[in-house]
């Protein structure tokens, strides 16, 4: 049994509030015991990060860049081990775990370069004896709260721009998947980051979150997770008027027009729906298919899904892993049961992996296709976060746009068509922050990631992603 530690002010520390276990969702195996940090420990970490901020914020951009570059190199040197860690604690296939590590590393690489591109400006003054100077300065200590579905990449996507800007950070990873975060801290230490610049606390989300909200030295919170928790943080941040970035839930429409390339759309659907067993905020959740192509689309999906292998992510031929826990399994099952009880048709359901003698089986939900989905069904309105494709037919473009935009969420949408005019019209009309136009995998480090409506605030990625960690200061100079 591994007993892991938190990383605070350059030291590996036990938790003052006890410990908790981390389990493999594919097998139920206990992987490690992880510390629960007490509120006092978290407050101490904030104080340490604020002390470190005083010198880290004054380091040259080149120094910060070099530290991030060393971290990037170390990640690539350990990509197999890191990918395996993700698979063990999160469940996704090893090839996806390794892919996540490379994706997460790309943010460290990007912001190692972006650190050198934070610039202000001189603005022409309205008086001869004045000059106007604008500076960009780091906001201060940043609290980063990250989810379980991408336990590596969601950390690097937050801390890399913060560190590049000159901020110091405290990370609170999801309790289901803290081991990946601890592995990152090991590499942070090897990369030579000064004490207190990067810190990690694990434990009870509510108690740690309350410290982040109440502590005046925390100047910004960046959070990826559910819309419900995001709203609580948004309300709580008001008392100290903290900056806050929120990347919240999604309910992505996948739109296939009858002139779309059938093979490409099927591959895009598989990529956007079944990556991480459907447990991604940009996973397609509502499949709007024009009536003339619906039967072919469903048949093509069935053919592909019959070759899918579901099981332990460490097995080399696994295409689909388990859901993260019992609660996630019950939600997916409830959505499917509700849809079937209200008239949906079951078009396809895969086989659940057989239980092994050692008890292996975990929270496996089979890939499923439903048709005849209507607005009275939970799966139409709520984010499923599982491997289910609900098919909703449509006739005309205007009807489609009304249905696709009928959601409180606005993170990602996917459109398949070969008509250029339609592609532009629909992309512009969709109320979503990310559009995959004939593309089922739009995420990349150099582009802005974020949503409209209740899907969040601010953007991560590209030069847009460093701005939320910077203050704008105006200096009026009299000569």
From TrEMBL:
Keyword DNA-binding listed: no
GO biological process, one term: gamma-aminobutyric acid catabolic process
InterPro entries noted in UniProt: Ald_DH/histidinol_DH, Ald_DH_C, Ald_DH_N, Aldehyde_DH_dom, Aldehyde_DH_Superfamily
Organism: Isachenkonia alkalipeptolytica
Keywords: Oxidoreductase
One Pfam family it belongs to: Aldedh
Family: Belongs to the aldehyde dehydrogenase family.
PANTHER family: SUCCINATE-SEMIALDEHYDE DEHYDROGENASE, MITOCHONDRIAL
One annotated GO molecular function: succinate-semialdehyde dehydrogenase (NAD+) activity
Residue runs in coiled coils: none
Domain Aldehyde dehydrogenase: 12-475
Protein name in UniProt: NAD-dependent succinate-semialdehyde dehydrogenase
């Amino acid at each position: 049994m591994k007993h892991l530690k938190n990383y605070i002010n350059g030291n590996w520390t036990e938790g003052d509030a006890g410990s908790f276990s981390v389990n493999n969702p594919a097998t139920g195996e206990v992987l490690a015991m992880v510390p629960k940090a007490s509120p006092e420990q978290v407050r101490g970490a904030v104080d340490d990060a604020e002390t470190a901020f005083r010198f880290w914020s004054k380091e040259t951009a080149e120094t910060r860049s070099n530290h991030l570059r060393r971290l990037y190199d170390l990640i690539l040197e350990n990509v197999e081990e890191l990918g395996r860690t993700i698979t063990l604690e999160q469940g996704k296939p090893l090839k996806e775990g390794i892919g996540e590590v490379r994706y997460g590393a790309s943010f460290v690489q990007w912001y190692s370069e972006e650190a050198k591109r934070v610039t202000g400006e001189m603005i022409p003054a309205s008086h001869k004896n004045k000059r106007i100077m604008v500076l960009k300065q780091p906001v201060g200590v940043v609290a980063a709260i990250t989810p379980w579905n991408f336990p590596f990449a969601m950390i690097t996507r937050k801390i890399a721009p913060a560190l590049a800007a000159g901020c110091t950070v405290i990370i609170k990873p999801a309790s289901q998947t803290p081991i990946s975060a601890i592995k990152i801290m090991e590499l942070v230490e090897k990369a030579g980051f000064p004490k207190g610049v990067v810190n990690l606390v694990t434990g009870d989300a509510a108690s740690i979150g309350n410290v982040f909200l109440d502590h005046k030295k925390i100047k910004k919170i960046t959070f990826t997770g559910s819309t419900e928790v995001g709203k609580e943080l948004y309300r709580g941040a008001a008392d100290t008027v903290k900056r806050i970035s929120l990347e919240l839930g999604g309910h992505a429409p996948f739109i296939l027009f009858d002139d779309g390339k059938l093979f490409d759309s099927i591959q895009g659907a598989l990529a956007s729906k079944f990556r991480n067993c459907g447990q991604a905020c940009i996973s397609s959740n509502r499949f709007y298919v024009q009536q003339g192509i619906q039967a072919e689309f469903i048949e093509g999906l069935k053919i592909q899904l019959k070759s899918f292998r579901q099981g332990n992510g460490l097995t080399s031929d696994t295409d689909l892993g388990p859901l993260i826990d019992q609660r996630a399994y019950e939600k997916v099952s409830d959505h499917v049961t509700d849809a079937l009880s209200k008239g949906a048709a079951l078009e396809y359901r895969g086989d659940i992996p057989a239980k092994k003698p050692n008890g292996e089986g975990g929270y496996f939900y089979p890939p499923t296709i439903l048709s005849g989905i209507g607005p009275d069904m939970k799966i139409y309105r709520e984010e499923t976060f599982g491997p289910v494709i609900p098919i909703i037919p449509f006739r005309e473009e205007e009807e489609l746009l009304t249905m696709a935009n009928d959601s409180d969420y606005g993170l990602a949408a996917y459109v398949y068509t070969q008509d250029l005019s339609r592609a532009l019209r629909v992309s512009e009309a969709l109320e979503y922050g990310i559009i995959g136009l004939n593309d089922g995998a739009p995420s990349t480090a150099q582009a802005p990631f974020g949503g409209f409506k209740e899907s969040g605030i601010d953007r991560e990625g590209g030069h847009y992603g460093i701005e939320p960690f910077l203050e704008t200061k105006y200096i009026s100079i009299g000569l």
